[in-house]
Amino acid sequence: MEMDAPRRACAFLDRDGVLIEDTGYPHRIEEVRWVPGVMAALRRLNAAGLAVCIVTNQAGVARGYYDEAAVGRLHHWMAAEAKAAGALLNGFAYCPFHEKAEAERYRRASPRRKPGAGMIEDWLAHFPLRREGSFLIGDRETDMQAAAAAGIPGHLFPGDNLDAFVAAILKEH
Ligand SMILES: [Mg+2]
């Protein structure tokens, strides 16, 4: 995004349980299952002029289930898959910290970890995005709490078809 671009509203999306199925710390590309309607939903958000930014807790890193390189590989693959489907994911933010992490470097109560609003606030502070008109889609109460803490609407995705869910949000947006 260019520095002098007008500020855009953003759809902040949780990852596991919204874009891909939450199979319990998903991290292997070959085991990823996209949620039904996901690419159509992303194209719909793109067409509406919204930026699309991922905000995902990845305590699996803190717990030692996988490393940050694995998170990066998965996100790179997700962005490429979206691009191949004509959809744009503008960016990925993740929080690898947990206050009970095995490894000391990840043992921290991070304001970026949802229900904290840190990841959302960082996107808003460092990219040409505006809070007004932005919203979050998540599948857990902690996602809704993060949205509320950032002062944006939170929409709880029940896990059916993401495109139908996004269409309904945009209709009343
Ligand atoms: Mg989730």
What labels would you give this structure?
about 170 residues; alpha/beta; Rossmann fold; five-stranded parallel sheet; 6 helices; about 35% helix; globular; binds magnesium ion
Itemize the secondary structure elements and their pairings.
Blueprint: E1 8-13, H1 38-47, E2 51-57, H2 59-62, H3 68-84, E3 91-95, H4 118-126, E4 129-138, H5 141-150, E5 154-156, H6 162-171
Magnesium ion binds next to loops.
What does this structure look like?
With 173 residues, this protein is α/β, with parallel strands linked by helices. The protein has a single domain (17-171), classed as Rossmann fold, CATH 3.40.50. It has six helices and five strands; from the N terminus they run βαβααβαβαβα. The chain has helices spanning 38-47, 59-62, 68-84, 118-126, 141-150, 162-171, and strands at residues 8-13, 51-57, 91-95, 129-138, 154-156. It has a five-stranded parallel β-sheet, with helices on both faces. β1, α1 (38-47) and β2 (51-57) form a beta-alpha-beta unit. α1 (38-47) runs parallel beside α6 (162-171). It is globular. Bound molecules: magnesium ion (MG). Magnesium ion is lined by residues 14, 16-18, 22, 138-140. Residues 14, 16-18, 22, 138-140 line the site of magnesium ion (MG).
